[in-house]
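Next comes this protein.

***
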Amino acid sequence: DDARWKSTCETIIDLIESASSDDSILIGISSYGGMLDMATRIASAIRISKAHITTLSLGPVASAGCLVWCEGHERLISAGSYFMQHEAWTTLRGKTTAIAKTALMVSDYVKRIIFSKALSVGLFTEEEVNNMVDRSRDVYISAREAARRTGAKVL
């Protein structure tokens, strides 16, 4: 139910934003993905939080889950997890010219904004991001490979 999920996300965001510099928050992630707007809001809250935020992969960390995991001030990986990223999914309706413009804008946003953190922490390569955006490919990375690329500790 979308309303319940949005309420849960708002609670998570409120917790992260109200935390002090004396606080530590551990966010465990096991997700096949989800609503990009909610993940973006959680990731933004992590980025500006005064607290020390640790993200921990607990299983599949896919799509929007990758965005949240990458924003952790410290990132940990459980041995049984894996990562998957792909071009954003969207549903558009309306005039064809507006759809075409919106699709290009969303594609550019995903490449420049959403994937930028994954690139900066080393989770995905530029070539992999180009394959996702330009060729609509899904990219899978094992826990071991993600740890090697990002320097995250495997638990």
